[in-house]
TRAP transporter small permease protein
Amino acid sequence: MDDNAPVLPAESGLLGRIVNQLGIVFAVGFLCSMAALIFEICMRHIFDAPTIWAHETTTFLCAMGFVFAGLFCASRNQHIRVVIIYDMVGPKARRVLNIIISLICALSTGFFSFAAWLMVKKAAFAPTGDIRLETSGSAWNPPFPAIIKIFMLLVMVVLTVQFLILAWNYFRQKPEISASEAPARR
């Protein structure tokens, strides 16, 4: 194992380990999008036979990877955090901040899950209730917009659960005592 590789925090639990393992799928998706673009460039500029699928496929694969990246970062506890206060406090206060931050993030992603559900209702269902996936409207016309919206909903729900798991595991942790907070021994 690479010494510089980030370690998955134990607080992420089983869900974090599963998300971490799925990361390779989306990394390969980025490589596939690069291959599709190279293929498109060759077809267009060398053979003068452009494709109708390469740009939409590349956009789709990258969008799926970017949506998953938020969940991936959260499971590794590498999400964006304003650290001006966080870095100034000791381990006990940091534990409390971790719980609060995780709960606020869970609440936020819960609201985003609801918003994603509203998008999915329009993108995946006809007014009659039948399943009808929204398409791109291009010459190829794949259902990528609906698939991305459904995927975003799933990721938001899993992200909400991941933040709840983090909050619970931070709550269960025993607070560490730093040397400056420990009582002086005689």
In short: The CA atoms of residues 82 and 118 lie 30 Å apart. The chain is about 65% helix and 0% strand.
